[in-house]
Amino acid sequence: MSDALRTRLTLDRARTAARSGDLDTALALLDSLEPPATDATDATDATDATDATDATDAVTGTEAGAGTGPVAVLDLRARVHAQCGELDEADRCWAAVQERSPGDTAAAEGRRTIARITAGRRRTRPLVQPGRLASAAAAVTAVVLAGSAVVALGGAGRGAGAPATPARADALTGRVAALEAERAAVAAERTAVAKERAVVERERAEAEKEREAAEGRRTAAEARLDARLAAIAGRLSMPGLTVRRRSRDVHVRFDTGLFPQGADVSPRGRAVLRGLGRRMAGMDVRITVVGHAVPVPGGRTRGGSVVALGRALVAARHLAEGGGLPRTSFTLVSADQSDNPHRQAPRNRTVTLRITPKG
């Protein structure tokens, strides 16, 4: 096997090892291809035309990675040393590349990057750059960047260039799982809040419905009461009376005094009371008879009166007899002496009635 073919095969194996992350093997293979300490002109004296072409490529810096000469070996060695964190060795190799190929832009960029890292002006990161030995550069770049794993130049030894994909993947998986759990918790909380809001809205709707129903019942009850009061007022209306429908009862006032004196009712008063009693027959009502009296000179002007209560009792008896009503249908009270229905004293010797529907 010719030296040129052996060199090409060995360099290819080194590139493959670098691509797989086996940097120790890559360096061992490159050690066997250590270029001679001669200048680029000596390198062009290789044994066959292929080596001559490679050397020419090395000198001109064209198509990096396509050659197999000393420059290709040194460039790949520099890149592998850089991935191992051996910056001095990487710089030495790229310096040797520049001695053989002064216009090599990849070597110049690599050395500038190492200088910036050494001076602390740049974070360590892979030094693989496009240029000479493109295949080797791609291999090392794949090793460094596979799975987003970056091998730091500082502190990483040989063999540390293997991709860190599993650990990074585990970390990302854990983060994703945590985010999913948080998202699920937020979604559950939103669902719970929505359910609670729905319950509140339902209770509010039910309360509003009940309020409207109660309002409807109250309105209906007031309408029924008003209708009953109207019917009572209409039924009790007769000459000699003033019948007034109020919000909760019907008030009946006699136009003239029924009692000329004491508790003795006048004939006309008796007739009016009995006639009114007949109109009350069959009515489902509560009847309150209020007796009134005129204060006597020098007597009390306020408070109830025995005379007034006696007048209420006499009036209730005539109402019951006129309508065939039980005495229990009536409630008897005495009005305050200052609370009289008329302005004229004789007309206040009377009674008034309050009729309230039952139920």
Can you offer a commentary on this structure?
This protein is α+β, with helices and mostly antiparallel strands and 359 residues long. The chain has three domains: 3-162, no CATH class; 164-226; 237-357, 60s Ribosomal Protein L30, Chain: A. Helix content is 56%, strand content 8%. Strand 1 and strand 2 (250-254) form a beta hairpin. Mean pLDDT is 79; it is low at 36-66 and 124-164.
Percent range for helical residues?
A: 55-70%
The span between the termini is 126 Å
- In which order are the strands of the major sheet placed? 1-2-5-3-4
DSSP summary: helix tally: 11
Biggest sheet features: 5 strands, mixed
Q: Give the overall pLDDT as a whole number.
A: 79
Overall body shape: rod-shaped
Radius of gyration of CA atoms, rounded to a whole number? 60 Å
For the secondary structure, the number of strands is 5
Oligomer: single chain
Helix/strand/pairing class, anyone? alpha+beta
Task: Identify the notable features of this structure and list them briefly.
359 residues, alpha+beta, 60s Ribosomal Protein L30, Chain: A, 3 domains, five-stranded mixed beta sheet, 5 strands, 8% strand
